[in-house]
Design a protein that fits this description.
Elements (H helix, E strand, L loop, with lengths): L2 H13 L12 E7 L6 E9 L2 E10 L2 H14 L4 H15 L22 H20 L3
Antiparallel strand pairs: 1-2, 2-3
Helix pairs in contact: 1-2, 2-4, 3-4
Length: 141
């Protein structure tokens, strides 16, 4: 994927994020994720039924990388089983941390494959995934 397409996708997810806005519904699990080193402070929520993520939403204050990564994550994970989501998250984290990963699992999330070049942005790109991992853990209890 060329750099212009990457920038365009990141900008699109930042300006028109998927499922921004929380809902008041007890069927959702909600967690707050906060980056202590910058402004990023988001709530991520998901509705999981029969082991499948049927909806996910977010809101909060965050930079362009965090907001767009959250939007792309939600777009990628809706409809996935918990196991599929965990595998996608694991591969995404590996990509951000410069470890081996399967890019075929990441779809649009591959646009963040050079975030590691800006170490201060790694936490921004990982923040929503930390929240989703917590949601997936809570959903098994």
């Amino acid at each position: 994927m060329d750099d212009k397409l990457k920038r365009d996708l990141i900008l699109e997810h930042y300006q028109n994020p998927v499922n921004r806005g929380l809902v008041d519904n007890e069927d959702y699990i909600k967690v707050n994720s906060r980056n202590e080193s910058c402004v990023d402070n988001i709530d991520v929520m998901a509705k999981i039924e029969d082991g499948i993520i049927i909806d996910a939403r977010f809101d909060g204050e965050a930079c362009a990388i965090c907001t767009s990564a959250t939007s792309a994550m939600i777009k990628t994970l809706i409809g996935k089983t918990k196991e599929e989501a965990e595998e996608i998250i694991r591969n995404y984290e590996n990509m951000i941390n410069e470890l081996p990963y399967d890019k075929t699992l990441l779809s649009e999330l591959n646009v963040y494959d050079t975030v590691y070049k800006q170490p201060n942005r790694k936490n921004c790109a990982l923040l929503p995934f930390r929240g989703m991992k917590e949601i997936l853990e809570k959903s098994t209890k």
